[in-house]
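Sequence in, structure out.
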Amino acid sequence: MIRNILERLRQKYRTIPYPIELPVLPDRLRGMPAVDSSKCREGCRACAEACPTDAITVDGTVSIDLGRCLFCTDCVSACPEGAIAYTTDHRLATRTREALIRTEGAYQLAEKLDARLLSLFGRSLKLRQVSAAGCNGCEADTNVLNTVVFDLGRFGIQFVASPRHADGLLITGPVSKNMELALRKTYDATPAPKIVIAVGACAISGGPYVDHPEQLNGAGSVVPVDLYVPGCPPHPLTILDGLLRLLDKLPPERLAGTH
């Protein structure tokens, strides 16, 4: 027992101070893309042609569908003028699919639940995680939120084993045809009112498997989605930021609705 106490003192406090303090993220993080269409050459579509998921549209200006984006930076390498760059901004989650279209304008970040749902889930949110044919990337970055570093439980958020004990679903993966019925049954088994969170490009749009005949292009084709967290996979702090915005648990200085 004494050795355990001494080891705990040696390790000190390991939980990150986020959201009270801004996170320190490495330069290699591929976060919110920055778009500068003024640099584009007339008629150039190099970035759109390089994108493996057709996430980029060039029509006078450049727009990126973050729901399809794999954050692979093929567009950055292909663009001769540097019109696209990836920043280290981890804030990406939105409440609607349409809001995931990134242009040069303001990007609408996720807003809190309505007053009724917030009164129900604001202090305690239980989620059932469903891997609907995911590759384990998004699953791993979701699972790590339970570790002492992020300590998801301090915000009143926990993962549960049964949908009957859950307030909502957190879905990863493109939803293969083999998982469609299982996802529907899991959703139906979750008592109402409930929320659905789609994590990762696969769960939002099908990701690298978009339009493949053996998958359904994401959770939205099967169940209604209340929060979209883009990325391939999203950083754990991107997922956490989305959850805290949904539950109105971010400090006022972190609650900027757009960027």
